[in-house]
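Working notes for the structural subgroup meeting. M.R. asked for a predicted model of this chain before we commit to crystallization trials. I am recording the input and output together here so anyone reviewing the notebook later can reproduce the run.

Input as submitted:
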Amino acid sequence: MGSLPCVVEDMGGVLQLYSDGTVFRSKDIKFNMQLIDQNDESSVFFKDCQYDKIHDLHLRLYKPRSETTSSPLSKAKLPIVAFIHGGGFCAGSREWPNSHNCCFRLAAELNALVVALDYRLAPEHRLPAAMEDAFAAMKWLQAQALSENLNGDAWFGEVEFDHVFVLGDSSGGNIAHHLAVQLGGGSSELAPVRVRGYVLLAPFFGGVARTKSELGPSEAMLNLELLDSFWRLSLPIGETRDHPYANPFGPESPSLEVVSLDPMLVVASEIELLKDRAKDYAKRLKAMGKTIDFVEFKGQQHGFFTNEPFSEASNEFLKVVEKFMSENST
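Returned structure, recorded in C-alpha cell form:
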C-alpha cells in the first residue's frame, strides 16, 4: 500500500503543493484590511470584465466618478493604468483587498482608468503563462479601442488609449519588464493603444548568486525561503533562478542592449530583500542608454503600497508615479 501524499511546498497555508502534484489553495485567507466597496458616495466605480474566454481570465476596471481633481494629470480624457498584481506568480487576485484597495487609490489619485488584470498562477500554470496573459490583456484593451461602439461607452468613451502606463507590483513588476521587452518602444503592435511608460514596484527578479539584500535580514512578510519557493513553483521544471524569466541578465538571457524600451520607473524599499536586484536592474539599463529612473523609499519594506495604500509613504509613491506619468505624456 502506497504512502499518502505529503506537503512538499507550503506557503503559510495559502498554497500547498503535495508530493503527488495536487495543489491546495485556501479560500479562507485572513487579510488585515477591509475591502473598499462602491456606493453612491464612492469616488471610484469598478466592474469586472472577462478578457480571456479560453482560460476564463478576468480584469477589474476602476474609473473615477468625476474628473474634478487636483491632479495635474486632469484633462478631457483619462489616461489608463494597467495594474499587474504581485504574489510570486503563485498567489494574488484583483479581488484580494490589497490589490483592490491600491487600485481604488490609483484611480482616484491619478485620475485614471485602472485596468487590474488577473493571470494564470503557478504551479498549475508555470511561466511564461503569466507573461502571455498580460499580453492578452493588452490585446483586449486594443480591441476596446477599435470597437465600433466606443462612442458613448461609459467606461472607455472618455479615455486616452494612446496614454497607457503599466504598473507592476513585485512579480507583476517582473511581468511588466517582459511586456516592455516584448512590445518594444512605442508598442506599435497595439495601435491605437500606446504604452508611454512602465512602473516596476519592487520587481521580483532572481539569480543563482545571492545579493547582499537577499541575505537579510528577513522582512515581516517576506524571507529568502519564501522567495526560493516562489521560483521553484513558477519556473519551468528543472530550471534555475538564472533562467531569463527570473534573471534579465542571466547567462542565457537575451541582451537588452539592442532592445528599444519605453521609459521606466523602478521603485524599491530601503529594507526589502529585492532592493539590490531592482537597483542593479535600473543601473544596468541606464548604462545602456535607456530612459529609466530609480527611486528608493527609506524605511519601507516590500509591499508598502499594496498593504498600506493610504500611508504617508504611499502618498509619496503616488506623487512619484504622477510625476512620471506627467513627464511621459507628451
